[in-house]
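JOB MANIFEST
job_type = single_chain_structure
chain_count = 1
residues = 626
[input]
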Amino acid sequence: MGVELEELLAGGESLFAEQLARDAEAILSRIEGIAREGSERPEEVHRKEELALAVESLRGPLERHADEAVLPAFPDEAAFPFHWALEFPEVFLSAEGRPRDDGGFDAVVGNPPYVRIQALGRRLADWCRGRYRTASGSFDTYVPFLERGVELLAPRGRLGFIVPNKLIKLDYGRRLREWLVRQGLVEEIVDFGDAQLFEGATNYTCILVLSRRGATELVYRRVGRGEAALRNALASLDAVPAERFPLRELGADPWVLATGDEARLLRSLRDGAEPLREVTSGIFTGLQTSADPIYVLEDRGGRGPLRRVYSPASDRELELESDLLHPLASGSDVDRYAFHRLRHLLLFPYRRDGAAMRLLTTEELEALPLTAAYLREHEATLRGRERGKMDHERWYGYVYPKSLGAHDQPKLGVPRLCAHLHAAADPNGGTYLDNVDVNGVVPHTQGPSVWFLVVLLNSPLIDWTFRRGSVPFRGDFFSANKQFIAPLPIRIPSKSEANSLEEIGTRLHALASKVTDEREGFLDWLEDSLGAQVRRLPGATSLVRHEDLELSQLLAILRRSRALFVQDPEARIFRERLASEHGASRDRLLEQRTSLSAAESEADEAVADLYGLSTTERALIDRDYE
């Protein structure tokens, strides 16, 4: 933070202007003397020190005056302004104490901090939003650093920063992207993708080169994957193949830097299509309770109107009325077409009242005595959330009651991070979505149905489009936040096309559910037979797709945890029963997966036909999945 010299001079600061005009020549001459003086003999060093002290004595009053223009914005915080024109007067000032027409640095190079502004405090965030045109919303601190760096450049100067590569696509970068294009500043980007450059920190970075020479095109270089490609790129960035994009084709929207056939296909997919956000009634994030150990419970089965649950907050199993308990899905519970079997319940102390949800009254809550007693057990914790923000009569509600009315609606769930875009249908609105790890898509009553959308959002065509518009994460994962799925192009079908795709969608959902039920049923049998929760064993992830394991592999996983079991997995009678159950389950799953694969091929063809893809365009998409 600091004050612009022009602001002080143009703001009627006559005393400052007079002092600067009087002392500028003396300051500049002494700085020139420091640069001219040698450093080999003691007397030369001493002379330099004297000149530096003289500069500081002249500069001090000017800096204190400049500080007074900034510090009132931070009355309760330690602030340390830095005034570039006063720290480097030889770069920015004339001998008359006026800003130089050619003032500024020829080059600015840096690695600014990557910190969301929430970590720096509200006052600094507000100051930045008022000071920098590119700082908007929940911005990252490197954004104002970029704008300030450009301000410090000479008329033909250049800037090179290493910054997060997400700036080309994230929402908070809209103003930055628009400014870079309108001012003709952006010259080159070297994108490192998901390669990690900084030891001990996970960042996704690029080198951003800006210039005040008036760029008309962006040179974009994407570093290949793997250590060898990264080493070669760092040895010679110019050796990385470059693509060129006219700045007139870029703007505030995310920059999808595709070329050739890919660029033409992306344009073709958008033509005649509507963004997902326009054909649905809402895209929302999951519920945030600020007290998950209390509200998120492990389902241990039902008994009449009660439900047995395990509470992490209470560290015990207990019974609660089922009235306020709803199946809860996180991102890992979202499979293609259907959710996995859900093993957690959400305690949801709200009730639908017309079009909205409202918090239960105290009287309504007391009508559920077990639930009321459980919440009272944790009343102190619930009231203390967010530094006492919930210390009032509505203490048992959620801190962030957003999108409460969306969860009991027919919808689709989309995981926040995914290698390939996929979605699960919740046709009856029985599944609630957990926190930011999963997003919900609610179809419009007059728009494409949940069954139509579940086909499209699981199709290679839409996934291909999504991966080019999203940002990468380590492990070849991509972000499926609202801003990356909302623009997806949805082609509105004719009635016959809609009927055909909806029928395929219902079939895919049913087949995927059968596969899930069969897999879970086998694990249920295994847990009952062994007397232990095999889903929590080391190697349990392999057990989920047990049909891909040979009997010997399955036994090897069980053998490693045999001390935990009531039944010895090495016993002959158990091995015989395991061979029979495993074999029968594998046969059923083979048949179900074959049917599912055939239905998926049918769906992919129908989607390609809907968008009118040529043979060449279909082959271009297929190359991503070979």
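[summary]
The chain has 24 helices and 23 strands.
The mean pLDDT is 89.
exit_status = 0
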